[in-house]
Amino acid sequence: MTAAPAAFLDRDGVLIEDCGYPHRPEDLKLTPGAAAAVRRMNRGGYRTVIVTNQSGVARGLFTEERMHAFNALLIEALAEQGAVIDAVYACPFHADAVEARYRHPDHPDRKPNPGMLLRAIAEHHLDPARSFIIGDQPTDLEAGRRAGVKGYLFAGGDLDAFVHDTVDL
Ligand SMILES: [Mg+2]
Fold it and tell me: Which fold has domain 6-164?
């Protein structure tokens, strides 16, 4: 089996508006063009993989269960528009965690570390050389760089227009 190319996608500020630790159903607001961009990646033969730092769990703002439920809502909202997400990786760890089980000085999964990408590459048989990451923070791109994946910095606006104009699919 040939390794597939992947589109690694940051969540907050890329697929959904970043209102500050979004986790409630009412916080779920897709960015303009998000579903169309994911459909474009689906059509292009890319596996779509969300990679998201969720230190709100570590900070005690919401539970890991709440985070998973919110991610499921996001996947559902995209699916309603014909956009398929293939996998979600989320990092709940942070150095300043309230709860000890989420406390880690520099967790390998927390971007800019590449742990989530490296696991996705191994678990889904992805080809980093033909993959890319879209993030709204330099740390997203740094995580990509450390995983051998090129990166595109999304500064807001219409995500599908950005992908169409900027990403070489
Ligand atoms: Mg972000």
Answer: Rossmann fold (3.40.50)
